[in-house]
Design brief:
The protein is built from 3 helices and 4 strands; from the N terminus they run βαββααβ. The chain is α+β, with helices and mostly antiparallel strands. A hairpin with a 6-residue loop joins β2 and β3.
Length: 95
């Protein structure tokens, strides 16, 4: 399993535009094979921050969805980003 998590900072005052522009990608991801979770959400403290959380069954599933990445309209709103992929070997609960 792969977890993608992090934060994106958008141009001040453009978070609502970024969120609206992300809606189709969110819906598409959730319909994609191997997607367990896909969340893009506004941060409750920082007005220009968006939090990202995704879960994927495999790197292949994630890569198939990513394709060429976000549209240029959305990308142009990003000021800074810190998003990481975390590879999980075991998802069983502790014994």
């Amino acid at each position: 399993m792969i977890i993608v998590s992090g934060k994106i900072y958008v141009i001040p005052g453009e978070r609502d535009t970024f969120m609206e522009g992300s809606m189709e990608s969110i819906k598409a991801a959730r319909r994609t094979k191997g997607c367990r979770a896909f969340v893009v959400g506004p941060d409750v403290v920082e007005p220009d921050r968006v939090n990202i959380y995704e879960e994927w069954d495999s790197k292949e599933d994630l890569s198939n969805f990513r394709g060429s990445g976000p549209s240029s309209d959305i990308s142009s709103l990003i000021k800074d980003a810190n998003v990481s992929e975390h590879y999980i070997k075991d998802t069983s609960p502790d014994s």
